[in-house]
């Protein structure tokens, strides 16, 4: 029997955590002499009040969906992939190579090729730590985080060397017009009804939704997903059942790395349309918070990614139009991560207690029905 | 400035048609942040100097992500802010695309050239400024070994290193120049511990003058230099005051002047490429009350000669950025 109904687990806990985070953010904003209510209004209006705001919110969310899914898939095998950043960087490199050197007739082909290459590059970058974990027992947390640095150095080598365009900036040339992904503005806007003006959200968002569905099918509707979950719950039991740990570790990490790498079709191909040094911008790390908050479920990851997209875009509006410094915006984002991810039990345990007292109160027969529906 | 006043002024700006007197200037800092003790802070100082002198206000924003470059540019331009100053070469590609959409707004970019009719591009001759401090370093060094600690390994920093090495070699052909970069990610601009480590390594190899061109990482370099009792050279802003007993000089790059000039010109800011070099004191070796005791008369003479030589063309300082090679030093 669960300690509390599922809806409380999925909805109530994140909600209470968010309210707590919002409360403490308000205190911090008050302390620096700004009006928290005004700040909240700017954030909500800036991020959700117009199609323009949504265009940015969903752009950031797309990045976080990919990296969040990457962490979530690995989590199901109880592996902690904190190399999403490096894998996304390598995915970007793959996208850049494909877009710069292959003349595509149409963006659909470019998108398919770029997504595949990004996934292969990301997966390849996850493969080495995975192999070290599977064969040598080198801890995946250490190796993946080290690989982030190697990826950054490698990217730097390419951008000040072989791939650098003319000029001072360490960046590639702009991708050709044929590799340009349609943005929401191209797709939904008309001269009479301009929508998503100038916003970077693009067709990669729909690829991200497809990825959510694919991950759900993989984890809960496929034999491999079952093996990944059983391996995650108990490695000795999985081994006893004939599941090869090496195979599961490798496959899980390849899928995870591939998902992180695919983020590049959004930020590199969809937004920047060229590869810059700072392309991944910590999205790989935000992915960890997104997966934690989303309970490693694709729907949860999607919602958490949109929340973080909101925080990013709302934060940008805050620093554009108020005296709240950007470091304070980071503090607000950190508070949300702290309360939803790290301090989960602080909310969970009191709530569990509330639910168990509520459950004890009714008569015995009604108790059994609530318990059954809860499961 | 609150949102409401912003919106009011924007609405008023639209009502009074373009070019109304209400337009205030704006500045967009790069990801390093406005208090980086170096490049962005210098721009901020120029902007605040203008605000203090005129009593007017300006809009500003510190970026958090790459996607915000275009966002901030467009939002400020749509609010009627003019001119809009961006600090750093990373804006070049975005500005190239955004500028044509707002022909009535004048943009300015520092450290890169954007070829658009409404963009003013301000570039600095960092190589000649670095040459000057290289001359001083070679004369001050007793071990004939000098060091260079760069921030992130990018062409701009190699331009500093290359000019510096040429100045050293021109003064003392026997001298050895040790060069290290703090790192290869943007974190390299803010890693004083690693900067200190590199300075330590160079000192143990005999370097007794070290030039730090590494943003906030340079603070660590100069601290170690002071702790070990050798001499340091600061960068961008005049950093001589940091360690009055151990600073040889600072290679100043007057980003603040370029921002101040742009804000003063206001809407009549002239587009085009502006190169700030030795002759207009855009770059140079800082001499003030903290280091004048260490600058000998021979150094002053050598500096004057080098300055004159660069101005009349008899000394040619190779610019790394022109062909991405450097004979004086290998990376």
Automatic annotation (TrEMBL), chain A:
Q: Which UniProt keywords apply?
A: Cell membrane, Membrane, Transmembrane, Transmembrane helix
Keyword Cell membrane carried by entry: yes
Subcellular location(s) per record? Cell membrane
Domain of life, source organism: Bacteria
Any one of the GO CC terms: plasma membrane
Q: Where are the transmembrane segments?
A: 12-33, 53-74, 86-104, 110-128, 140-160, 199-220, 248-269, 275-292, 299-316, 328-347
Q: What Pfam families does this protein map onto?
A: BPD_transp_2
Report whether Ribosomal protein shows up as a keyword of the record. no
Which membrane topology describes this protein? Multi-pass membrane protein
Leader sequence segment? none
One GO MF term on file is: transmembrane transporter activity
Q: What is its main location?
A: membrane
Q: What is this protein called?
A: Nucleoside ABC transporter membrane protein
From TrEMBL, chain B:
Task: State if Membrane is listed as a keyword.
Answer: yes
User: TM segments?
Assistant: none
Q: Where in the cell is it found?
A: Cell membrane
Indicate the segments annotated as coiled coil, or none if absent: none
Gene3D superfamilies for this protein? 3.40.50.2300
InterPro entries linked to this entry: BMP_lipoprotein, Peripla_BP_I, PnrA-like
Coarsely, its chief localization is membrane
| Domain ABC transporter substrate-binding protein PnrA-like intervals | 35-286
Q: Name one GO cellular component term.
A: plasma membrane
Pfam families linked: Bmp
SUPFAM superfamilies per the UniProt record, alphabetical: Periplasmic binding protein-like I
| Signal peptide bounds | 1-23
Q: Which CDD domains match?
A: PBP1_PrnA-like (cd06354)
Q: Which family does it belong to?
A: Belongs to the BMP lipoprotein family.
Alphabetized PANTHER family for the sequence: ABC TRANSPORTER GUANOSINE-BINDING PROTEIN NUPN, TRANSCRIPTIONAL ACTIVATOR PROTEIN MED
What name is this protein filed under? Nucleoside-binding protein
Q: What is the lineage of its organism?
A: Bacteria, Pseudomonadati, Pseudomonadota, Alphaproteobacteria, Rhodobacterales
């Amino acid at each position: 029997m669960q300690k509390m109904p599922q809806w409380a687990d999925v909805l109530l806990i994140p909600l209470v955590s968010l309210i707590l985070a919002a409360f403490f953010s308000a205190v911090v904003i008050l302390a620096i002499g700004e009006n928290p209510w005004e700040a909240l209004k700017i954030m909500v209006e800036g991020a959700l009040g117009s199609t323009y705001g949504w265009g940015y919110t969903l752009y950031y969310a797309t990045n976080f969906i990919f990296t969040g899914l990457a962490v979530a898939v690995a989590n199901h095998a109880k592996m902690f992939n904190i190399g999403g950043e490096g894998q996304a960087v390598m995915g970007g490199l793959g996208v850049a190579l494909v877009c710069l050197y292959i003349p595509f007739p149409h963006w659909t082909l470019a998108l398919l090729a770029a997504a595949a290459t990004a996934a292969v590059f990301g997966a390849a970058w996850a493969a080495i730590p995975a192999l070290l974990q599977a064969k040598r027992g080198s801890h995946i947390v250490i190796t993946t985080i080290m690989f982030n640095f190697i990826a950054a150095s490698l990217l730097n080598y390419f951008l000040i060397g072989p791939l650098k365009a003319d000029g001072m900036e360490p960046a590639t040339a702009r991708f050709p017009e044929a590799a340009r992904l349609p943005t929401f503005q191209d797709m939904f806007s008309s001269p009479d009804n301009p929508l998503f003006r100038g916003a970077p959200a693009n067709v990669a968002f729909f690829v991200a939704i497809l990825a959510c569905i694919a991950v759900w099918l993989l984890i809960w509707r496929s034999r491999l997903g079952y093996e990944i979950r059983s391996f995650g719950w108990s490695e000795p039991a999985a081994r006893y059942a004939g599941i090869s740990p090496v195979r599961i570790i490798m496959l899980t990490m390849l899928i995870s790395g591939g998902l992180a790498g695919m983020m590049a079709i959004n930020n590199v191909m969809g937004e920047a349309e060229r590869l810059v040094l700072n392309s991944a911008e910590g999205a790989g790390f935000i992915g960890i918070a997104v997966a934690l908050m989303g309970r490693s479920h694709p729907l949860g990851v999607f919602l958490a990614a949109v929340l973080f997209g909101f925080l990013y875009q709302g934060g940008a509006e805050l620093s554009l139009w108020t005296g709240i410094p950007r470091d304070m915006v980071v503090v607000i984002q950190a508070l949300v991560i702290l309360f939803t991810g790290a301090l989960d039990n602080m909310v969970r345990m009191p709530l569990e207690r509330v639910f168990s007292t509520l459950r004890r109160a009714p008569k015995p027969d009604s108790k059994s029905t609530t318990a059954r529906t809860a499961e | 400035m609150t949102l409401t006043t912003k919106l009011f002024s924007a609405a008023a700006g639209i009502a009074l048609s373009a070019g109304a007197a209400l337009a205030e200037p704006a500045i967009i800092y790069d990801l390093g942040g406005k208090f980086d003790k170096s490049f962005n802070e210098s721009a901020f100082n120029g902007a605040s100097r203008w605000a203090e002198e005129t009593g007017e206000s300006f809009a500003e924003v510190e970026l958090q992500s790459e996607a915000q470059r275009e966002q901030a540019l467009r939002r400020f331009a749509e609010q009627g802010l003019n001119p809009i100053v961006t600090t750093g070469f990373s804006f070049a590609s975005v500005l190239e695309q955004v500028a044509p959409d707002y022909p009535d707004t004048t943009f300015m970019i520092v450290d890169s050239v954007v070829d658009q009719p409404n963009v003013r591009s301000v570039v600095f001759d960092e190589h000649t400024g670095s040459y000057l401090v290289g001359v001083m370093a070679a004369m001050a060094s007793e071990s004939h070994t000098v060091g260079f600690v760069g921030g992130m390994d990018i062409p701009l920093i190699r331009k500093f290193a290359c000019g510096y090495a040429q100045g050293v070699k021109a003064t003392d052909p026997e001298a050895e120049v040790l060069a290290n970069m703090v790192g290869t990610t943007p974190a390299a601009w803010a890693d004083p511990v690693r900067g200190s480590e590199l300075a330590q390594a160079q000192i143990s190899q005999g370097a007794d003058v070290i030039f730090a061109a590494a943003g906030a990482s340079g603070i660590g370099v100069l601290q170690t230099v002071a702790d070990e009792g050798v001499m340091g050279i600061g960068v961008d802003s005049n950093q001589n005051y940091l360690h009055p007993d151990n600073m040889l000089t600072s290679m100043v790059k007057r980003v603040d002047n370029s921002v101040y000039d742009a804000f003063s010109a206001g809407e009549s800011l002239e587009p085009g490429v502006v190169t700030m070099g030795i002759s207009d004191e855009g770059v140079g070796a800082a001499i003030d009350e903290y280091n004048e005791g260490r600058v000998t008369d021979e150094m002053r003479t050598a500096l004057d000669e080098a300055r004159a030589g660069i101005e009349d063309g008899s000394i040619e300082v190779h610019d790394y950025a022109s062909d991405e090679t450097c004979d004086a030093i290998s990376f």
